[in-house]
Specification:
This protein is an alpha/beta fold and about 230 residues long. The chain contains 8 helices and 12 strands. Helix 1 packs parallel to helix 8 and helix 7 packs parallel to helix 8. The longest helix has 15 residues.
Length: about 230
């Protein structure tokens, strides 16, 4: 908090300076899926999507929020043990990451550097216990962040993961929209979707598009493979 006291952010959004929006090395397409947690269906589990990825052996990076982990401890442990998936952090309370309380989608962000620390580091113990390592990547709630918070994350050893392709618009997109978004991906893209909202268009869109992309020879990678 002392190191960042008085730092005033100049940028706000999903692609500010320092956010990783594409792979450093365009070795393939990195599929990422968030589990945001919380009420109103946020703790759900899209089993058809995860089963499909396993069946087709499509690697993906899963960002878990502590609320989702606490609501699904067995599933969280199971996913963490599956080498097909890279597990990364989606924070504690799914807050936008800000040093001045900036909001996104009517969700108030962290209010200062100490709030950023709490949101980022509050899930650290689970990662060390489940994976034997701290997170390498952090995705803020709503994916919104300011550049000061990005610097704090880097100091804490975590890159802020953004995206270049929004597959499911927060799990609100239709099957056709998800499929179309995926079919437009190119090597180097980081794709964002969600696996905590079963019954939405995400799973069906992936089931439609991913086999076609595989047939075209598009490789899929975990985030760590592109850096």
């Amino acid at each position: 908090m002392a190191a960042y006291a008085g730092r005033s952010p100049q940028q706000w959004g999903t692609a500010v300076a320092g956010v990783v929006s594409r792979l450093d090395r365009p070795v393939g397409v990195a599929l990422t899926f968030d589990a945001c947690g919380g009420p109103n269906g946020g703790n759900g589990y899209d089993e058809p999507l995860i089963s499909f990825l396993r069946q087709r052996q499509v690697p993906a990076t899963l960002f878990l929020n502590l609320r989702w982990i606490n609501a699904n401890p067995g599933l969280s442990a199971e996913l963490a043990a599956d080498p097909l998936f890279q597990i990364e952090s989606h924070g504690v309370a799914h807050l936008p990451l800000s040093v001045n309380g900036r909001a996104a989608y009517r969700i108030g962000g962290t209010r200062d550097a100490g709030g950023v620390w709490d949101e980022v580091m509050g899930v650290q113990d689970w990662f060390v216990s489940a994976l034997g390592r701290p997170p390498w990547f952090f995705r803020p709630g709503t994916a919104h962040v300011d550049e000061v918070a990005v610097s704090i994350c880097r100091d804490l050893g975590q890159l802020v993961a953004g995206f270049s392709v929004n597959a499911d618009a927060g799990a609100t997109a239709t099957t056709a929209q998800v499929a179309a978004n995926l079919l437009n991906t190119r090597p180097g893209d980081i794709v964002i979707g969600h696996f905590n909202r079963p019954g939405r268009g995400t799973a069906a869109g992936c089931l439609s598009a991913l086999p076609r992309l595989q047939d075209q020879g598009v490789p899929f990678v975990r985030l760590r493979d592109g850096f």
